[in-house]
Amino acid sequence: MLVTKKAPDFTANAVLADGQIVEDFNLYENIGENGSVLFFYPLDFTFVCPSEIIAFSKRVDEFKERGINVIGVSVDSQFSHFAWRETAVENGGIGRVKYPLVADLSKQISKDYDVLFDESVALRGSFLIDKDGTIRHAVINDLPLGRNIDEMIRMVDTMLFTNEHGEVCPAGWNKGDEGMKPDTNGVADYLAKNENNL
């Protein structure tokens, strides 16, 4: 389990948001002001993956507004990533997504994050990394189960709220909601006011 631990660092080939191919994309050099979302997907030119990749791209500005950089990873090459980005959405491509796609040809990054399935492809792992490199949230889906990108935005909001206020976020918490003080009185106070909404 990686939650509460430092995110395994890596340097790898990647296609950047502007389409440039680089050989030295480093995770820690690309963590945003407040952190990053690192997500793994099985393969380029497949089926569930493009819906997730496009959904992340459509929301990338929401992540950036929160100081969070989005980074995608699969076991494909940087050249495959590039080709998929250059393929129009209506032809099964992902278009020019607005964040980097990392090439994990050796599968070492997938192994380090414990998402490598059957020594072949990465499961749908998503990791919320705090600005200091600590993994604060992780979810791993089986191959046929697509992610909810809005839920990741909600988790970013919970991390930022707890970092700023030192309070905890109860079930179903959304940005703008009341937090809970992490003590007996805080729990009692919160539940007295909000139990019917849980």
Automatic annotation (TrEMBL):
Specify whether Oxidoreductase is a keyword of the entry. Answer: yes
Q: Name one GO biological process term.
A: response to oxidative stress
Q: Where in the cell is it found?
A: Cytoplasm
Main localization is cytoplasm
Q: Where is the active site?
A: 49 (cysteine sulfenic acid (-soh) intermediate)
Residues annotated as domain Thioredoxin: 1-161
GO-annotated molecular function: thioredoxin peroxidase activity
Highest taxon above the source species:
Bacteria
The answer to whether UniProt assigns keyword Phosphoprotein to this entry is: no
Task: Quote the cellular component terms of the Gene Ontology held in the record.
Answer: cytosol
UniProt keywords, alphabetically: Cytoplasm, Disulfide bond, Oxidoreductase, Peroxidase, Redox-active center
A Pfam match: 1-cysPrx_C
Describe the family membership recorded for this protein in Swiss-Prot or TrEMBL.
Belongs to the peroxiredoxin family. AhpC/Prx1 subfamily.
Purpose: Thiol-specific peroxidase that catalyzes the reduction of hydrogen peroxide and organic hydroperoxides to water and alcohols, respectively. Plays a role in cell protection against oxidative stress by detoxifying peroxides.
The protein's name is 26 kDa antigen
- Give the gene symbol: ahpC3
